[in-house]
Structures are given as C-alpha cells and as structure tokens.
Amino acid sequence: MAEQQMKKRDMRAFFDVKAPMTGTKIQLYGQSPEALVGKVIKLDLTRNLRGKGAELQLRTHLVDGALIANPIAFMVFGSYIRRSMRNNVSYIEDSFVVKAKDTSVVIKPFLLTRRKVSRALKNALRVAAKDYLTSLCTIRTSQELFTDLISNKIQKEMSLKLKKLYPLALCEVRTFKLIEVLGKKA
Q: How many other C-beta atoms are found inside a 10 Å radius of the C-beta of residue 61?
C-alpha cells in the first residue's frame, strides 16, 4: 500500500496550461491533466495593467488532451481603490446581475467623483453606468467582455459616457464574475 502511494507521488509533473486571454505561461503541478481539470488559477495582472491592481481567476478545462484556462472572474484589488480615494470626493458603487449572450454575470462598478456631489447626481451616475453595462453585456459573449476588461476598453468608454453627467476621477469595474455558463453553475 505504501509503495503504491510512493509511485503515485513520483508520477507527479508540471503540465502546461494555455490561457489564450493573457498570453502568460502557466504550469500546474499534478499527477495528470485529468486531475487538474476544474482547478482555479489566480493571475495578478498588476504589471500588465500598468499599476492597476487587478486579479484574473481562470478555471482549467481539458480540450483535446490539452489544458486550457478560461476566465471566470476579474477583480480589482481593494488596496488599489483605497489608494485612489481622496478627501472631499464621493464614491458610487452598485451590484447587479446581467445576462450576457452565453452567461449570467455579476457586475460591480465603482465610480469616484472629483468633488462631493448630491445624492441625485450619484443616483444618475449609478443608473447611467448600469444602463451602459447592461446594454454592452447583452450584445457580447463573456470572452469578449473579459478581453475588453483586461484591455481597459469598457472602463474608458464608460468614463467617456459618464463624463457628460459629471467628471469622474476613477471609473472601474470592480468585480466581474460569471454565475452560470449555459445553464451550469460556474
């Protein structure tokens, strides 16, 4: 019995995982590629995003004998948001569920104004951000949305839309998580 356990331990190796979104080389340690299916990988994207502290979570799948990692969540670190906060500013947060073309996602936008603003203006910014993100999600797949989040395209477009209501110091999607993938839990 002990010899079989030693043989299993000796059979472990590093397996390459392809992550088409990021282009980074990922290796996981395990007994076989089949044993690594469903593992969650956390990638720190701070260097890729020029100092914006963010993390991408990927889940591994086995496709034609090769491990492929697909994104399941994108989160901005709390330390990055705290570093951006200043005195005499207002912050606006929201959380809602949206159906994309192929999934359901939870989106949490985070907005920082340049000065203190009224509740009515905060509400107008919150509603405008929600409308923009829901209209964007309904016409795109989750892979396209993750690509645009990593490249900062969604945040920049949202900032330009909301700037017409009030100039923002920071406009981020703090959390973007998959809930369901084609009827299955993520």
A: 15
